[in-house]
Amino acid sequence: MRSVLVLGFLFLFLVIMIPVHLILLLIGKFNTELRYQIANFIVYWAFRWELFQAQANIEVKGKENIPKEPVLFVSNHRSYFDVLVMHTTSTKRPGFVAKKEMESFPLLNWWMKDICCLFLDRDDLRAGVQMIKDATELIKQGHSIVICPEGTRNQGKEMLPFKEGSLKIAEKADCPVVPVTLINTDQLLEARPGFDIRKADVKVIYGKPFYMKDLSKEERKKAGTYVQEIIKETMHRETEI
Q1: What's the rounded Cα separation, in Å, for the pair 47 and 140?
Q2: Rounded mean pLDDT of the chain?
Q3: Does residue 227 contact residue 166 with C-beta atoms inside 8 Å?
Q4: Short-list 164, 165, 173, CA closest to 144
Q5: Rounded CA gap, 146 and 73, in Å?
Q6: Residue 230 and residue 160: Cα distance in Å, rounded?
Q7: Residue 241: what pLDDT?
Q8: Are 168 and 117 in contact (CB under 8 A)?
């Protein structure tokens, strides 16, 4: 029943909100920032409702670590629900770096673009460089971005290696990096075969921010590994509590 409610709301939202999206496109021709603000407000409440329907009991720690300025959130990736959890708890209403295939989802791709999401073709190096440039520009304009350097959802006990180039955005934008540890988001959906959404206790922990320029040369070279170790330590600590 929970799965039907969540999918039903998503379908109705995407269809009923078509006129609203068209209005947002019109607004964007004159005021891009206003378009983003309105879209983020709408999506925030839609995500809140979806999480309520899924009965996600979310415990948030470390919100005081999130700086006032735009940031690059770097997170492990367990579930489709990761996007909803970070968008509603981070205070920043960030955009997300998503795989290129998501751009082919009709209606959904409109809203993704409305909240500053970027699409990454993992097989095209040139497209990857352009994505970094676009993300850097968005951060300089005042928007925060989330990237999941594992590159895909992972329900294994061990995280996949973080791709080292993923933090180039923070280096070029000279913005803070905030490590984000997500625990149990996969228990909402991916822990079972099929589309079977169940209630779950979820944790999201925002770590202390750092600047790439403050890392040693060796740490900058392996920045993905550096952040991954922070997330691993946080995960170990939180799961032992």
Answers
A1: 26
A2: 92
A3: no
A4: 173
A5: 5
A6: 14
A7: 55
A8: no
